[in-house]
Specification:
mainly alpha, c-terminal domain of poly(a) binding protein
Length: 114
């Protein structure tokens, strides 16, 4: 029986990867093996960073809440501790948004906590 390459499917597979690496620099955009490695590495970074993004946003929210709380002579940890003791269940995302965009509402929360 003759050997079969299935060149059509192989070319389609390569073409799909090459299209994904179109904007890359140097040989990463036009050499198949380099391109394939860059593409696979990019996919692994994307997978990792979809999870890392959540931690980065949480850190950003904490910084914003801390900056807002410091205006009222309170640290972030003090503020969050008093918030939970007061029984106010509001997440960091909303608190950070209030601290940045609605200082009056944030001030009302701080006054209620103190």
């Amino acid at each position: 029986m003759p050997r079969v390459n299935n060149a059509v499917a192989a070319r389609q597979k390569r073409k799909k990867v090459m299209k994904q690496t179109k904007g890359y620099f140097g040989r990463r955009k036009n050499v198949w093996t380099v391109s394939k490695n860059a593409y696979e590495k990019g996919l692994s970074y994307a997978y990792r960073d979809r999870r890392k993004k959540k931690a980065e946003f949480r850190a950003l929210w904490i910084q914003r809440i801390n900056a807002g709380a410091r205006e009222y002579d309170m640290s972030y940890s003090e503020f969050m501790g008093k918030l939970s003791k007061a029984g106010i269940e509001i997440n960091r995302k909303v608190l950070a948004d209030l601290a940045m965009n609605d200082p009056q509402a944030f001030e009302a929360i701080v006054k209620k906590v103190q």
